[in-house]
From TrEMBL:
Pfam families: Abhydrolase_6. One of its GO terms (molecular function) is hydrolase activity. InterPro entries: AB_hydrolase_1, AB_hydrolase_fold, Sec-Metab_Biosynth_Hydrolase. Residues 1-27 form the signal peptide. It comes from the Bacteria. This is Alpha/beta hydrolase. Keywords: Hydrolase, Signal. SUPFAM superfamilies: alpha/beta-Hydrolases.
């Protein structure tokens, strides 16, 4: 009887060992290889795609296929069209990422069938029928930012004297000067255009709150993400947290690619 019990316990121990090994191997495989390899990055207003260089390098070194959209910034419809062109060229499921105004763009463009998940980086996230400006008006602008002027052609500009402190305080003065010089001309009508179909209602969404943001009040970001049941990650950084904290931002994108 004792011999039979010993054999039983040995057999049970062997089964448990095999189960543990299988679970461990599966977990390692999940961590080693993303389920989604494609990432499309959409920039916001007062910037262009070159700001994504550091984030691009982190992601590509981890094996991701990264595409950066150059938004024309002429309207919401035009920016969505540019994003859809990039999505059309992807060879499979894609994580669509938007910063700032780019959040409004991916909220509309995220309905593309290849989009599997959305990531908002200090970004706007309107609902159906809502405009970007509605959310920007829910909290007063930071002193470092102020009211953005609109010229006679309907183009809104960031005050050059406030750009570093108000937009990109945690990167170098030289980097901020390059960002200012390379930004696109943003047509203010984009802020007034309502979203027609919010993709976050149907797709998994992840949102990064930049806790030192002076361009979009962090409380606005929190309120939008909470309303949409977006998974929130708070990262200490300015509005361009993807430049100052590219590894931490990349980790959120990687998480989105594995779920």
């Amino acid at each position: 009887m004792k011999t039979q019990l010993n054999r039983y316990f040995m057999f049970a121990a062997l089964i448990l060992s095999l189960l543990f090994t299988t679970v461990n191997v599966n977990a390692q495989a999940k961590n080693a290889a993303p389920q989604i390899k494609n990432v499309v990055l959409v920039h916001g207003a007062f910037a262009d795609g070159s700001g994504y260089r550091a984030l691009y390098e982190v992601l590509t070194k981890k094996g991701y296929n990264v595409t950066i959209v150059q938004n024309p910034l002429s309207s919401l419809e035009d920016d969505v069209a540019a994003t859809n062109l990039a999505l059309d060229k992807q060879d499979g499921p894609t994580v669509l990422v938007g910063h700032s105004w780019g959040g409004t763009v991916i909220t509309e463009a995220g309905n593309h069938p290849k989009v599997a998940a959305l990531v908002y980086i200090a970004a706007l996230q309107p609902d159906n029928g809502e405009t970007t400006v509605q959310w920007l008006q829910t909290a007063p602008p930071a002193p470092e930012n102020g009211v953005l002027p609109v010229d006679e052609k309907g183009i809104v500009y960031y005050d050059k004297a406030k750009y570093h402190a108000g937009f990109a305080a945690d990167i170098s003065k030289e980097q901020a000067e390059f960002m200012y010089a390379s930004q696109g001309a943003f047509h203010a009508k984009g802020f007034l255009t309502p979203v027609t179909k919010a993709a976050w209602r149907d797709k998994p969404s992840y949102g990064i709150v930049a806790t030192e943001d002076k361009s979009i009040n962090p409380d606005i970001e929190r309120a939008m993400y909470k309303r949409s049941n977006t998974k929130i990650t708070e990262i200490k950084g300015s509005h361009v947290v993807f430049m100052s904290q590219p590894v931490k931002v990349a980790n959120v994108i990687i998480e989105a690619s594995r779920n």
